Amino acid sequence: MNAQFLYVGKEDTFSKTLLERFQKAGFPGLSPHGKKKVFTALSDSSVGIPFVLLDSRQVFPSLITLIHMVRKERPVTPIFVIYDHSPPFSETELRRVGVSGQIHRSIPIDKVVDFINPFRVKTKDFDSQSKPMIMSSGESNKSEGDYVTVATLDMLSCSPPLFDLFVKTPSGKQVKVVSANEAPEIARIQNYVKLGLPYLYLKREAKVRSLNYLSLVENTLPTQARLNLELRFLHLAGQATDFIESTNELAGSAGAFQKATDFLDNLFGFIHSSKNSFTEIVSHFLQSASELEHSVNVAMSCALLAKNAGFETYHSFWQLGLAGLLHDIGKAKLPENQRHRKNSKSWSEGDWSEYRRHPKLSADTLSTWPEIDAITLQSIVQHHERRDGLGFPKGKGAGEITPFAELIGISDEMALLSDLYPNESVQTLVNILHKQNGNGFSQKTWDTFIHTFLPT
Ligand SMILES: [Fe+2]
Ligand SMILES: [Fe+2]
What we know:
Elements: E1 5-8, H1 13-24, E2 29-30, H2 35-43, E3 52-55, H3 63-73, E4 79-83, H4 91-97, E5 101-104, H5 109-116, H6 123-129, E6 143-144, E7 147-151, E8 165-168, E9 174-178, H7 186-194, E10 199-203, H8 204-220, H9 229-250, H10 254-273, H11 278-288, H12 294-309, H13 314-326, H14 349-355, H15 358-366, H16 374-381, H17 403-420, H18 426-437, H19 443-453
Parallel strand pairs: 1-2, 1-3, 3-4, 4-5
Antiparallel strand pairs: 6-7, 7-10, 8-9
């Protein structure tokens, strides 16, 4: 039988056990990584997807973007969300975004299997009796007038679909066979599969309505204070990661820049309009910092420091956040092994001097972007300068380094440490940072940093 479920999330003991357990029961699963692979798996119309499991810790694409992707390609496949701390959605919101259930990661695998319950249909029956269901590529989601198709195999778990479903009679008429929000009879779905009926139909209008709602949530999520803080935070991180991923392809073009602006607008709204306390927001950031892409980590840290450093106007926030996102863009011009300080143990003096060129390379690249102003460029070129004169590329001293450059610099050092020591406490990381750079930053920068990340 041509059906497999999808698990999209981090690989850990939970996901491995889950994939093995379902495999044993005759439901093979696939665990694609990255936006492109997830899309390829979802759009493979030769395979039915009876259910999808999404990890709420997923940063890129973020949970809500994933839900949108699944709904677009697989309108009736049930979606289940695996979460760690608190459930990402309230009961009402769960129904609105079309998620069938939320499962805490700590529950035993057998209970997860019972909860998803894809075994109501005896899969072996189909292998021996069903006619082959041939779905040529590109056939899924095809349009027929006011209707679009869905793979019958996507209904295999008999979960209540979000939409009314129809079959087409030989005369070409659409007849409703499953009602929205009602679990269909197993025998009926079994019968369609046995008859070799590859598609069911749903009204295009209903699908468009559901996708429009998801787009709305996706675009405004970070500032929707009523929704889960973790969900909003991870969505922001996903948006910024999307920008970083696309900068290489789109460098300097309006498309890439618009993504950065959308992220910074949302980040500003997230920090300034949130009902959650600033401390709560900071603690969410610190929890995820070691898993964020480096530049995303630095930009988020800069944005949080900006609030306590007095750069609260939108313009200065935007300049600092953008500089944080783009500070290392010049590294793309260096060979891979000279880009990351965490690999520096094996570096020769030559490697070091190449690495020290990157702030200037970043500024050179960005000087061709009309949207980047002189202050942003200056803070980027100075992000490795230190007040004790030990920085680079110029070895500048106290009084010569801009406050923005110092905030990017201290965020950069913290991001490196959270990457090197993902399991250490914030206090330990701050201690290491202070030991290495105590005289590298002004007292004001240190005060802002401590006040933000180690509030008393
Ligand atoms: Fe750097
Ligand atoms: Fe950096």
